[in-house]
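Hi U.,

Before I forget, here's the chain from the pilot set. I'm dumping it here mostly so it's searchable later in email.
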Amino acid sequence: MIKKIIILGFISFCHGQQADIYNREYQTAPNFEIDVQHYDISLQIYDHIKTFTGETAVTFKIIKNDLKSIKLDVETVTITHVLEGSRKLNFTQTNGALRIEPNGTPKSGETLTYTIHYDSKGKEADPSQFNMGGVKVLGIGFFDETEDNPQLVQSHSFPTGARHWFPSNDHPADKATSRIATTVRKDWKVLANGLLTNQSTRGDSITYTWDLKLPNSTYLYVMVAGPFEVIQDYHKDIPIAYWVYPKDKENAMISFERTSEIMTFLEGEYGVPFPWPKMDQITIPGIGGGAESTTATILGHNTIHDEKAEKDFPSHWLVAHEAAHQWWGDYITMGNWHHAWLNESFGTYGEYLYSAHSKGYDEGQINLWKKKQAYFREYRNRYSRPMVHPYWDWPNQNFDSHIYPRGAAVLHMLRQVIGEDNMKAFQKKFLTQYAYGSPTSADLFRVVNETVGKDVSWFFDQWVMSAGHPQLEVKTHWEDGMLTIWIDQTQSGKKTPEAYRLPLDVDLHYENRVDRQTVWVDGRQTVHRYKTKIEPILVRIDPDDHLLIEVNQHKTKAGLLHQLKKDNVIGRRGAVLALTPHHGDKKVIKVLKRAALHDDAWFVRQAAFSQLTHHLDQYDWERAYKREVHSQPRRTIITEYAKVFPSAAAGLIRASVQSDDSYIVQAEMIRQLGEVGTADDIPLVKSFVKPWSPRKIVRNAANKSINSLKAK
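Structure:
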């Protein structure tokens, strides 16, 4: 890990809350004293006592003259000694920094190698002390065996976790090649960046050596060790492999089978062949999504699931997101943390692109719409900020819904503004020009302008360098053959443009035709007039849902009914919800029933069922459950049925919960049975406590329901 919302009916726009995001430290470009060329990392893992020792040879070039010390980032581990060749060097380790006194006075351009020895002494970093409270590991962590995972050891280098397991210049703009040699117990395997170049056994231990001969940022370094099963695959002549727990091998390909297809799709989108010598994916505990470690993506083990879960918990979006990072984030990497949209916006947009490619237009529309909603929630509930925002105290403060889903929506709009061919051309040019480098946002802006052949800086000024989004008040009036449309921009807030420039499509719907008009909205208030002999039934703003906007527009009942019949999937869903004030009209209810049962899109059917709670009888609900093939509307059917006919719903649940082919529907059934069932249902509910379900959703629902039923 969107779309624009069409707000049908009048609403009150909520403005973003600034919180304290402008009171954080202002960050400038890094002022490096050295340029690291290579890390040669050797680790000895003692899993039985949860500790490790390390030896890292850092080869670096001096950038500045007259350095009194060489500084590297290091946390958690204890440095024992530092060598230059066989000579010991003096050093101090304080406040997250290792300062090494050089032998003599190194000169600019000189290349040195220091070998640093260290010991974790059984200490593990507390992520919360580094503003990373949502993860279990920062640096290297040791996991005990559980029912979910075997005993294993893993690194977590994002965003500044590398310094917790090897001394480094821990910044994304300083890239280096690497060798990672890890010694573990003989029955384990080790994965790291690059290609496996050596494997040697000595006694009860084994050492795996991985080499990456292409430059890579430290936050992308990875090492995972454990009793993994490895499934070998290929993308053309590039080896790819899937590393999973032994218990998960049978289901692994459900999650990973599309990897090569996704890589092919992204190569076509970016115009650049996969830029690394291999592509591995490995499952680990402790994270919910993934992390795009170069050539070796780590994924939360919940990504593995059985065939039944595929409909509700697919992994292909995550595989696509992390695969996109092999270009956007790894091949090119943000020059500083506040340019993180260069990584995450493109990664998240990759999810959308593959969704639309593999599942079709409607699913792509739904995917982008959901992304927009995620951004709107953050905008309303937390803060508003530019996508490039150099005010941060911790790097991970840059990784939010303003650059993941909002960034994807912005890239989608850029595609509409510059065109499909230019979009692909600029991506190819940018990736090629900054291959294995660390560009900034300004570099991308320049490449886009060069590719398009004109200045589109206005687009980036308002969407990347500014905050907020357009909030439009739209009014329409038809009289004497003239349609007038008033569009007022009402958005406000710090760094929010007073007026956006918007290429805006407007569809004028008549009974049997649609006329499309395209206008530029470039002022706080604009008026647009069209000659038309008859009054349009509906005026649809941004009919393809390309823009990241909120629209407040009154629509008539007739217009909304027409929209429900004729619009795209997002518009039809919006019409369903906007018809709420008209539920007293029997015709409206009839149309909503038709949509609930017959609309082609599950997204619309689900919305319609949510609006029909008090308008369907028992027969309708029972028939709807049996007919509905998609799990999401079926879950809504169970929820709403239980509200109005609890006894009948309980009967349906008892008869169907075992056979329903969706985990999310089963979980909802069990939750509702806890509300509308009786103590006699406890044995049935208990039968769902032990079996596996994705993210334990059925088990958790069962345990909660048992407590509810016992209290009755």
